Amino acid sequence: xxxxxxxxxxxxxxxxxxxxxxxxxxxxxxxxxxxxxxxxxxxxxxxxxxxxxxxxxxxxxxxxxxxxxxxxxxxxxxxxxxxxxxxxxxxxxxxxxxxxxxxxxxxxxxxxxxxxxxxxxxxxxxxxxxxxxxxxxxxxxxxxxxxxxxxxxxxxxxxxxxxxxxxxxxxxxxxxxxxxxxxxxxxxxxxxxxxxxxxxxxxxxxxxxxxxxxxxxxxxxxxxxxxxxxxxxxxxxxxxxxxxxxxxxxxxxxxxxxxxxxxxxxxxxxxxxxxxxxxxxxxxxxxxxxxxxxxxxxxxxxxxxxxxxxxxxxxxxxxxxxxxxxxxxxxxxxxxxxxxxxxxxxxxxxxxxxxxxxxxxxxxxxxxxxxxxxxxxxxxxxxxxxxxxxxxxxxxxxxxxxxxxxxxxxxxxxxxxxxxxxxxxxxxxxxxxxxxxxxxxxxxxxxxxxxxxxxxxxxxxxxxxxxxxxxxxxxxxxxxxxxxxxxxxxxxxxxxxxxxxxxxxxxxxxxxxxxxxxxxxxxxxxxxxxxxxxxxxxxxxxxxxxxxxxxxxxxxxxxxxxxxxxxxxxxxxxxxxxxxxxxxxxxxxxxxxxxxxxxxxxxxxxxxxxxxxxxxxxxxxxxxxxxxxxxxxxxxxxxxxxxxxxxxxxxxxxxxxxxxxxxxxxxxxxxxxxxxxxxxxxxxxxxxxxxxxxxxxxxxxxxxxxxxxxxxxxxxxxxxxxxxxxxxxxxxxxxxxxxxxxxxxxxxxxxxxxxxxxxxxxxxxxxxxxxxxxxxxxxxxxxxxxxxxxxxxxxxxxxxxxxxxxxxxxxxxxxxxxxxxxxxxxxxxxxxxxxxxxxxxxxxxxxxxxxxxxxxxxxxxxxxxxxxxxxxxxxxxxxxxxxxxxxxxxxxxxxxxxxxxxxxxxxxxxxxxxxxxxxxxxxxxxxxxxxxxxxxxxxxxxxxxxxxxxxxxxxxxxxxxxxxxxxxxxxxxxxxxxxxxxxxxxxxxxxxxxxxxxxxxxxxxxxxxxxxxxxxxxxxxxxxxxxx
Length: 1028
Fold this sequence. Notes:
Number of strands: 69
InterPro entries: FN3_dom
Distance between the termini: 98 Å
Radius of gyration: 44 Å
Helix content: under 10%
Shape: flat
Number of helices: 9
Strand order of the largest sheet: 4-24-2-1-26-27
Protein name: Fibronectin type-III domain-containing protein
C-alpha cells in the first residue's frame, strides 16, 4: 500500500519565468512527420517530441539521439559553432581566456532551469517502466534545488522521498563511479525486493501528464527545498507555466528524492556551469578564424541577479581584426532588471561580412550579471532540424507564452526554397508548412505543380498578364525571370515602383552644397543612398558620396568649384542591390550653383528728404543670383510678413531698385530678398508719420533659415553632476540666445571606444537631462548636437563623491632635505577618504616615465618620508588610492624641489697621502652628524704632471687606494669630487721609504707616469675602471 499526500495544485507567479519574447513556430512536415521547425525566437530552445516506447528504451542510454542542427533561413549552417563557449559540456569553454571570471556549478546556487540553446547539450537518458532516477542528497540545514526535463509519453512518475540510510541499504548508488554520483542511474523496481517496505515508510509525490501519448510534450520538473522552513516542493512546468504538485515539510536530517517512472521516458538533468564576475573589470575573449566571408552573429546567455541603473549596456562585444581595426556591438535592449530566468542577448551585423582571423571579446559591465554560455549563430530566423530522422510527432518552444504564428509566418516559410534544399528536396514537393504546401505545389500530399497562371503557396495566387517581359514568371513566387514589363517597377517581383527620393538643398556656399537626407518617415529599410553629382557643363564623370541611415541628417558636398552649376541626384540602394542592378535608377536631378549666399550687403535702404524709402538690391559675380524681392505690411509690431503687398522677380538681374513713397502712420513694412538657393535677407521699416518712413531694422543682420550661430564653448555651457545628470545653459543674453542654434539631442559615448550608449532629446537651453548611473572610473564623451548638426563634446569621468574629494587631494610638505621630503599625511588627506593604505607616487619632473611608488599605511602615523631622492632636483608627488571594486584614482600633483647638498670642503673631508703612495680620504667626525645633507662623493683622480694615474667613480664613505710603487721624487695630486662638482685635493711627493710630503692644497691639474706603477697595479686600475 502506498501512502500518498493530497495534491494541491496552484499557479505560482513568483517562480522561474521562461518568457522574454513571443515568436512564431512553424512545423515543416513531410508525409505526416515533422522534418524541421522554424522560429524567430532565439531566446528559447526548440525541443522535438517523439513517441518513446519500451522498444526504444531497450537501447543503452548512450544511444539516445535527440540532437539538432540549426540553419539560417537562407540555408547557411553555423560554421563558427566550434568557437562556442559551452558551459554544459566538460571543457567546452577551455579555449576562452577569462579575466576576473570564476567558474562554478549550478548546483551551488539557486539557478533557474535551462530553456535556451544550451538545452540540447544536456545529456539525455532513456528510462524504462518502473525504473529509478536517483537525485542528489539533501540536508535539512541546506537549501537546494534541481531541475529535470521529462518526456513521459506513456505514463507518469512518482518522487519517493527516502532516508539516506534506506537508499544506501537498497544499493541505489552501487557501482556508480565517484564522478558520476549525480548522474542518472538505470535500475528497475524488480531489482529491489524490499522496495515495498521502502514505499510504506516514506512519502511520495506523483505526477501524471494529461492527454494521449501522441500529445505529450517535454516539461520541466523542479525539486525545490527551502532550509528556512524545511519544506520540499515539487513543481512541474507545463509549456513554461509552473504548477505546484505538492509541498511537504521534512523532518529528516538527510534524504534523497528518487524518481520512479511508470512508463517509458526520456530525461535530461539540468547540470551546467556558470561564469561569475569577481569585480566590475570583467571580460572573456578568444581568437576565431572565419574562413568564408559571412555576417556576424553571436548569442550570449546571461542571468541578472540585481537591477542595474547604469545607462551603459550590461554586455558589450568587440571584434578586433589582425590589422587592429575594431567593430563594437552593444546590446542596449539587454534587460537590466533582476530576473529569475536565463536570458539571451544577441549581437549581430548582417550588413557587413567578416573574414579572417580576429579576436572576439565579451565585456561584462556588472558583478550582478552571470554568464551561462556563448553561441555563434546564423542570424535572423532559424530552422532547427533533428539529426535523428525518425518519426518526430511534435516540436515545442520552452516559453510560458504560446507561439504567436500568423498566416504570414506560414507563407514566409512555405515560400523559402532554401529550407527544401536543406531537407534534401530540391523542388519542395511533398513539403508543407503547417497546412500550407510549399510554393509551387498543391494537392493533398503537396505533389502537384501549379497549373496555368497559378503560383505561390498552395498555388493560390494568380499571375497578372503583362507584369513580366514575355510573361515569363516563377511558379514559386510569381517573380519575373527576365525583366519587368514596366521598367519603373522593382525587379524581380515587379509589384512596387523602384524607390526614389529627391535631393533637398539646405544651403549653398562658394565651394560647398549642404543637402538634407530623407528621414525614416520618407525612406527606411534600405542599404544606403548614393549622392551623385557633377558639373552641368563639362562634367564627364559623376562623383558619389555614400550615406547610410546612421550617418546623420545632412550630407555636405565640399571642395566644389566656385560659381559653377552642378546637378545632383539620389540613387537608393536596397539590401540586395548587387543581384538586381536594374533597380539602381536615379531620382530627378536638381540643379544648384555654388555661390556666396546673399547677406546684408546686398540689400540697401535709403530714406530721402521726403521720407520715401529707396530699396536697392544688387549682387556681384561671387554672390548667388537674386530671385525675388518681397514687400509685406502690418500694423502689429509683433507680426512679421503679415499682409503680402508686392512681389518683384529678379532672376537674371544684378541690380534692382524700388521706391516706397507712401505709408500710413503706425504701420510697418517687411522687406525680404531671396536668392536662387532660398538664402534670405530681411529688413524692417516703420511709418513714423503720414508718408514718412524710417529704417527700424537694417538688413545687415540677415534672418536666414538654418543660418543660426553654431554651438561652441563660448556660447554654451555643459555642466555634469555625478552620476550622469547634465545641465545645458547658454552663456549669451536672452536677446542673443535666439541667434544660437537650438539644442536638438544629447548622446553619451564611452571615450575609449566612442561607442554610443544612449541618446536623448533636448528641449531647449536650461534643460536638465538625467542619464542615470555611470560606471565608476569610466570616461564618457558627452556630446550636444544642435539643430544644424553642429556638435559640442565635453569629457566626463565618473566617480563617487569620495573619489571626487580624493581627486582634489595633494601632498602637504612638512620638511625638505637634500635627499628626502617629509609629508604631513594627516593634513594632506584631511579625512577626505576612508582608507587603510594609499600609494605615494613620485618622479623627477624632467624625466618623463613611470612613477615610483611607496605604500603609506594609516598605522604609520601622521608623517611619512620619501627617501633616496637627488639633491637640488624638482620632484612631482601625488597620492593614488584604490578601493574595492573601483579603479585606482590619482590626486593632484605637487611639485617640490629638494634642498641642495652641502659641498665638501676641508672641514668635512680629511684627504691625504700615506707612504709610500696611498691615497686616503675620510669624513671628519664633525661631518658625520649631517651626512644626509652633505654632497655624496662621486669621483677620485690622482694625477702626475700631464698623466692620469687614477680616475674612478666612488660610492663609499671611506677611500683608500694604494698606488705604489712610485718614482722617487715625483709629485702627485689627489683630488676628490662630489656629486655637485665641488672638490678638495692634496698633493705630495713620492719617497722610497716614507709617505709623499704634502706640499699644498692648491687646485692644480696634474698627471703621473703610469709606467712607474707595477703591472699588478696597472691591472687592478684597469679592472676597476672597466667594472665601473
